[in-house]
Amino acid sequence: MGGTFEIPGTGITLNFADSGEDEQSFIEDDAFSFSSTAPTLSNSSVLKAVESLINLNSEFEIVHIVGTSGKTLWAALAEQGKEFLETYKNHAFSYVKAGNVEIRKALMNTLHQ
Fold it and tell me: C or N: which end of the chain has fewer Cβ atoms within 10 Å?
């Protein structure tokens, strides 16, 4: 015995499987709980997306990155910004969210190196 249940509007599907250990694996009023982790961005996917802007037939100055990020991505975005300026003569600023004061300080230190 088993089954699946798709949580509407989330893209999440719960799979229930019979362990085979009990005579009645699923009975009325059973309760199930689970936890999930929010999706995260990857440095490579962000950098690839920003790089794709090179061929954009529209002017832009700001690239707003939404999601949790860190020093490695910040440094890479700073390098891409330099490349946009030096190679393509485009002032492209990256805007990333830094949630707390310590992260903001680290971001500013990374960008000013």
Answer: C
Q: Which residues pair with 67 in a beta bridge?
A: none
- How confident is the chain (113 residues) per 10-residue block, as mean pLDDT? 83 81 75 79 89 82 82 86 83 70 66 62
Cα three-residue angle 40-46-47, rounded to 5 degrees? 145
CA distance 18 to 1: 5
Question: Residue 96 half-sphere exposure, CB side, CA atoms within 13 Å?
Answer: 27
- Reported for 71-77, long-range contacts at CB under 8 A and 24+ positions apart, including other chains, are 71/106, 71/107, 71/110, 72/43, 73/43, 73/46, 73/47, 74/107, 74/110, 74/111, 75/110, 75/113, 76/43, 76/47, 77/46, 77/47, 77/50
